[in-house]
Amino acid sequence: MLTYYTYVCKKCNQVYYGPKGETICIYCRSKDDMITIKKAEYDRLIERDAWLNYLEAAGVDNWEGYDFACEARRIDEAKDNE
Ligand SMILES: [Zn+2]
Fold this sequence. Notes:
This protein has 82 residues and is an alpha+beta fold. The chain has helices at residues 39-57, 66-80; strands spanning 5-9, 15-18, 34-38. The protein has a 3-stranded antiparallel β-sheet with strand order 2-1-3.
């Protein structure tokens, strides 16, 4: 089975699929601003982003657990920066 990889250009933000090993953006020809993730992971992230948009549109920032989540994130990020 042929595995397709998802490429995201950090310079022009274009997304495309291709075989493993692409190193040059097919849109802007940038060589250095590419990341490679498996298509399944890309699809999962897009799905999570779509769901987050629904949650935000529904006012998740007014939810009582939102401040707790913000604080937990702040603590984790502080640990990462130690
Ligand atoms: Zn590009």
